[in-house]
Amino acid sequence: MSRVKWHAFLVTIYLLTKSEGWELTNTSTPIIEFKNVGLSYDDNEVLKNIDLSLEAGKFYTLLGPSGSGKTTILNLISGQLTATHGDILFEGNIINDVPVEKRNMNTVFQDYGLFPNMNVFDNVAFGPTIKRMSKTDINAKVTEMLDLVKLSDYADREINELSGGQRQRVAIARALANDPEVLLLDEPLSALDYKLRKDMQYELREIQQRLGITFVFVTHDQEEALAMSDWIFVMNDGVIQQNGSPEDIYDEPINHFVADFIGESNILDGIMKTDYLVHFTGKDFENVDAGMRPNERVEVVLRPEDLDLTTIENGKLVVTIDDQSFRGDYYEITALDDDGNEWQVQATNKAEIGERVGLTFDPEDIHIMRFNESEDDFDARLESYEDDADDAKE
Amino acid sequence: MMPKSKRQRQFFYIIPYGIWLVLFVIAPLVLLVFQSLTTPTGHFTLHNYAIYFASGTYLRMTFNSVWYAFLITVVTLIVSYPMAYLLNQLKQKQFWLLLIILPTWINLLLKTYAFIGLLSKSGTVNNFIGLWGVVPQQLLFSDWSFLLVAAYIEIPFMILPIFNSLAEINPRLEQASRDLGANRWQTLRRVIVPLSMPGVKAGIQAVFIPSLSLFMITRLIGGNRVITLGTAIEEHFLVTQNWQLGSTIGVVLIVAMVITMILTRDRARRSARKGR
């Protein structure tokens, strides 16, 4: 093939992958799927009509406060719990009635659940032994797994001789020794100290990418979720509030709960006067949102790190510094505007308590949330006015 | 008033039990050993031990004691382990536990007599099977009835420690085992049973050792068909009045108990260490 032809061939392939037809044929079966899954204890609805779909090989996080249903979802995937209604599919097959031990997934538990009557080697070898692998294969597997979690020298240690971080690693090695297609992690880092947690976040992410298997990670720590995940499900009250990439969820929270739970937020009541014009704290501001009814009541979100302190003349708002604390790389400042609203600001420059200063932000830092807007409606609206904006440009 | 030192206070706490210990544990032990090593006139001798170890009868009694204590322990364990396991899964644990402990509050002799009423030729069991025209059977005074009654009496002492050690096992471990591909049976064999061994050892101690010196049940239910060391001691002290030989058998029995203790405790401690 000549160079030109070869190039043309590649371009064709590229265009094919972009076209919708290719997408249809290339859409592989999700590794895990929930179809209208719910779980109730007596009258208590723990999980309400959950639909979700996980692609193979990605790092998913279920994020939410305790009691939000995130661990319930994990236990439904692993089979420790059975749904009250709905179907759970694994690679396209319904697995509602498949017992825990027959599912090709393994769990890293919050308290590790290591067997105290066995040493490190025997803990990791537990799964392969149950599978009746040969002695040499078991040895090879355990060695490989202990290498992976950097515990090669600890095979003969008893569990009670290990630190929390080491136990954590053994638990990961033990769960991976079965070659699961999905690894489920139930708040595995919550018992570790800050520094160790950071290291393990990085390492878990690395292990996931090296093995290329699906990870489903449960946490209540939004920072952890943002740092590790390809895709996040934010849960509250047994409902998925929002799902998306970490950037999407941080930048475009869909409702008050998500905005408040993910990161620090200033949330104010406002009115969307027309497209691209929002009114709050008694003033009109230019912004980048559209697609609402005229004069619709909305909530306005401004992230503390998007706010800057400036002179009163240059400020879009005038505030009085109420409190400030040094956080290492920034000052956490609390300020009050003339309407009495409290503002959280992360500023690089120091301020004096009681000082009156200007507060400034860019139009694209203003994020608008409608009341009771579903994820689908949100996406549709976003698409419609972004298209408008593109048309306007042309 | 002068402040008392910690040591003085501790000494004060020990006095009531100390009196008890000296009068009813240490003194009898010393007397027992002393009598086993003397003649009736108080001279030192090893004669009693010579008689004991030279006599086939006593050695057979020793073997009988150990053998029946072993059988009682095995039967008790077979009945108790599954029960303790089940008990641990029940919702009303405390209630069922109470039911199991309840019989231990009743006097041993009373319970034994009750079994005579149940098992005798005109007893409840024979009356019951008589409804189907079965002629009354000789149930009392057999090895089986002896084992049945002894096991019945010992079962709570086996269930309790096993139940406690099962209750201490983190339920997460069972979950983890299932998660790693083990079915219920494999989980039981590889995780639950090994972790409950401290309880099993404690239960064996609590059943085997007292069973070595059972004697009222051997007479009332076993009809003295089974003669154990307990029976022999009773005979020597109360019937033949040979306190020296009775003491000797007592010392042998105590030594056997201590050996059992050491054997089971050593293992119990090792698995307890691993279990933590």
UniProtKB/TrEMBL annotation, chain A:
It is an enzyme of class 7 (translocase). One of its GO terms (cellular component) is ATP-binding cassette (ABC) transporter complex. Keywords: ATP-binding, Nucleotide-binding, Translocase, Transport. The keyword Nuclease does not apply. It holds the Pfam family TOBE_2. One of its GO terms (molecular function) is ATP hydrolysis activity. Its EC number is 7.6.2.9. Residues 32-262 form the ABC transporter domain. InterPro entries: AAA+_ATPase, ABC_SmlMolc_Importer, ABC_transporter-like_ATP-bd, ABC_transporter-like_CS, Mo/tungstate-bd_C_term_dom, P-loop_NTPase, Transp-assoc_OB_typ2. This is ABC-type quaternary amine transporter. It comes from Leuconostoc citreum.
